[in-house]
Each structure stands twice: as structure tokens, then as C-alpha cells.
Amino acid sequence: LVHGFVNDEPDRVKRTLGISWPLMVNMCVFAGSICHDEKDFSWYFHSEYGNCYQFKTGKVSSRTGRRHGLNMMVFVGAPANPNSITFESGARLFIHNQTESPKSVEGISVMPGTSMNIALKKRVHNKLPKPFNDCHDTAKPFDGFFYAKTLELGYAYKQKTCLDLCVQDYLSRQCNCSDSSYPKLYNNVSH
Question: Are 50 and 9 in contact (CB under 8 A)?
Fold first, then answer.
């Protein structure tokens, strides 16, 4: 219930409910270049985790290994802020395609005082067009409302995002409210 009230607050208030960028990020290097500045990340508020920072798109490393990826040292201890929205300490790491919402993927918990090394390998499947399968060869195969809304929010289509929007639609029609953990579907509905 508290999370719903927090989501209605302006961003300047939400930012005070967790550890600030300068206190949290002690070191950040991507592919040998310093990325300590907050401008290298975009801020958003998560109803469960508070202040979240997403590494911005357009930065690519073509080499593998620990020195060529994203390396960060962050303070994830208990915030000294009595207004914090969570009783947990630590961080939640979301690794996702830039066309997906970080809220639509499972995260990895990072506890205070620990070090993590996560290696990823991208796998791409290219399917053959008709007559070898029934896949649509156009970029917009569906005309549904939730499909269009997913694209409008700036995400690639995923069934989970579509289902999340469907839940939001149901809640807005039943109680003129919405769940703050899902993407907001209508602007005139309160959380």
C-alpha cells in the first residue's frame, strides 16, 4: 500500500527515498572508460527497490573479459535515510535487452560485502521465412491494443509485458486504480 502512495509523488521526492548516486557509486568503468557520472545512466523509480539506474544504450564493447565489460563498485548498505521504502540492504541487478523494461525481467540479488562476476553470451536465432515456417515477416504482425501499447511504451513485444498491461487494464476498469509494479497504462488512473 505504501508503494502506491510513493508512486504518486514527484520524482524529486522519490529520489530522496534511497541512496543517492554520489553515495552509491564509488567506481564505474566500461570497456576501459570511466562512467562514474550519473549522465551515463538513466534514473527511474521502482516501487519495490527505490532508486534504480539503467546503463544507457549506445555503449558497446566488442571484446570479452572482465576488463572490457561494465565494472562497478557500489555502496549497497543500509541507507541512513529514515524515509527509505525498504528494510532490505543490497542491490538488485537486472540484465536485459534495451528494448525490454527492467521491470519485466527477473533480477539478481547482490548482498552487501560481496563481489560478483557475471558473464553473458548473446545468442541470436534467425528463423527462415515462409514457406519454412509460419512466422510473420513484417515488423508489426499484431493489431491488438496491448501490442500497440507495448510498442508505444518503447519496449519490444514480450508476452509478459502484454499480460502485465492486461492486468492493468482490468484493474483500471474494476476499481479505477493500477498496480505500481506494472507499466502504467492510463494517465488518469491512480496507483
Answer: no
Find how far residue 68's CA is from the centre of its chain. 23
Q: Got the DSSP string for 7-61?
A: HTS-HHHHGGGS--HHHHEEEEEETTEE--SGGGEEEEEETTTEEEEEEPTT---
Contact of 31 with 69, CB cutoff 8 Å: yes
Tell which residue, 152, 174, 135, 19, has the closest CA to residue 88.
Answer: 19
Which pTM was predicted? 0.64
Contacts of 114 by beta carbon, 8 Å cutoff, 6+ apart: none
| Predicted pLDDT of residue 31 | 86
pLDDT (tens digit, 9 = 90+) per residue, 89-98?
778 888 777 7
Place of cell 518503447: 154
